[in-house]
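Ticket #4471: structure export looks truncated?
Reporter: QA, pipeline team
Priority: medium

Steps to reproduce: submit the single chain below to the structure queue and open the exported record.
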Amino acid sequence: MAGVQTAVALREQGWTGQVVVLGAEPHQPYDRPPLSKAVLLGKAEGSAFDVDFAALDIELRLGLRVSGVRPGQRLVDTDAGPVAYRHLVIATGAEPIALPGSEGVPGVHLLRTLDDAQRLRPVLAEQHDVVVVGAGWIGAEFATAAREAGCNVTVVEAAHRPLAGALPGAVAGYMATWYADSGAELRTGARVAEVEPGAVLLADGTRLPAGAVVVGIGARPATAWLAGSGIALAPDGSVLADDALRASAPDVYAVGDCVSFPSARYGARLLVHHWDNALQGPRTVAAHIVGSETALTTADRYDPVPYFWSEQFGRFVQYAGHHAGADTMLWRGDPTSAAWTVCWLRDGALVALLAVGRPRDLTQGRKLIEQSAHLDEARATDPTVPLKSAVR
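Actual output as written to the record:
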């Protein structure tokens, strides 16, 4: 998404020079969200972007792995030799973290690429017993698809609740009940000791039958290939960019899951592993490549309200903002019901929102976060009051 959107944005904003997209995968560039849904369940063969690359004069070089970059010489090293650049945009995304000790074990899967999804389709079609390691967003989405396909599903999570790294316990605790409601078993506080063909062994001695094991324990920026380049990386491995998404080397930018950037809105450096970030960032990068630095305004600085969504266990979950640093949490609706919202405030201003089955709250709340709007807490907690009407 990030690489393709950068190429398209360059053309839309008037760049007339050569545009080359290098990609390690052999497939036409594709969208990832359908992989854990339609593609996985066999309802779609792929999710290629509807982009006429030839008409836009965008050259695709697919099946070509990049191994390094030499900023001093303005060269990218690839399997087919060096490629010269005037401007370089790093859009290598993130790579899933493997479960230690599971490498090479038959029946162990990751879910990140189209090939991953296609390898998993027979698992669902044959209704294997499935063990999912990790109750994060991808674990929940895969478990949802596997249950829809009729598989027996057990989700194993080392923390004591799902989404432990993403949401407070007071919120995620209610989401734990969704697993049982769907017929999946959720085991929290459960550590994997060993994975063997056909089974997962837990640290407490439990042996779980597993026709397939799907690992969803997180992802890290795919930046190992930048070693030795001199391009600065943050401790989390992300490209260390400024508020224009510029890296530390001249004329090098980064977009999407591989880059972190300073947010004046939240007073923190953000690393956002979500689709919307890969859609928004390229516009900023294209503006800086096409335009002169002196002509750019603060509007061209990248400081978005992060946004993502997830479809799991029959629920549409949406999140906007960044709740770290909030001092107040408000509930809109009953979290044991099918539709509810959580709002986070800092000094009275809305900074983040999680909406379950309440898309209108999300749409209105996202705008209010952008405006740093202050809410009347009494009105904001009344789910019958439109969120925009709760502004003080």
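Status: closed, not a bug. The export was complete when the record was re-opened. Leaving a note from the reviewer for reference: The two ends are 38 Å apart (CA to CA).
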